[in-house]
Amino acid sequence: MRPPLLGSALALALGASPGFAATIEVTIDKLVFSPASVQAKVGDTIEWTNRDVYAHTATVKGGWDVMIPAKSKGRVTLKTAGAVDYFCRFHPNMKGRIEVTP
Amino acid sequence: MFTRPTAALAALFFVSAAPPAPAAEKPTDPQIAHIAYTAGSIDIEAAKLAIKKSKNKEVVDFAKDMERDHEAVNNQALDLVKKLKVTPEDNDTSKALAKAAKEERAKLAKLKGADFDKAYIENEVAYHKQVDAALETLLIPSASNAELKSLLETGLKIFQGHEQHAEHVAGMLK
């Protein structure tokens, strides 16, 4: 139990201090974004780790488009506040959401 | 006009759906592996034709996605059958699929430009829909090996994704 508690306490402390940007991890496994929904702050980075042998994207309609090659990673730094729904252009049945606070 | 491969799958589907389904109609794992691999290969062949013939960027990009994904699925299938020491077994469904797909490719090969693009993408939508149905109602429930079942389930998500992708491209061609 200790490491997760310490981890979240650390994340909380970092999140609370202005100027510290966090990296939020999202895993892709068998065409599923996990966790499907994450919360972040402007300036944070979302990093997707693709465990599939298939290439994916994280794409926001009319917004950013991140390529996530097979067995690789992709990342985006969040610049604006607001909730965004994203999907994979290659497999539009894959969906995720990011709630970005200022 | 492009209904033959899908008709073969539909036949498979209806046979299994007709009650009471005799136990003998249920495909075995070696047959399921063969059917799934054949279904993937058919889409790869269609994609290769589209990459060669189409001048439409959206269509070519889509075809490249199909080629890449289905090669990845089929490679995983080959690795799995090797690991499980299963020899994929040819069967009437695979034969019907392969024969019909060959005829469809011949028809597609005669078309040009926008006619080709439209026919290819429309066939992709229909074909993926039919494969989805076959996977969902027959192949996945019939698979007895857990790893084969899991691969088919991932395959279903890929096929469903492709169907939506194909519908999106079809919408752009209109």
Automatic annotation (TrEMBL), chain A:
Signal peptide coordinates: 1-21
UniProtKB keywords: Signal
Domain EfeO-type cupredoxin-like: 12-98
UniProt-listed PANTHER family: BLL1555 PROTEIN
Protein name: Amicyanin
UniProt source species: Mesorhizobium atlanticum
TrEMBL record, chain B:
Lineage top rank: taxon: Bacteria
Pfam families, A to Z: DUF4142 (PF13628)
DUF4142 domain sequence ranges: 28-168
TM region(s), chain numbering: none
Keyword entries, A-Z: Signal
Keyword Signal carried by entry: yes
UniProt xrefs under InterPro entries: DUF4142, Ferritin-like
Signal peptide: 1-23
Keyword Flavoprotein annotated: no
The protein's name: DUF4142 domain-containing protein
Annotated organism of origin: Mesorhizobium atlanticum
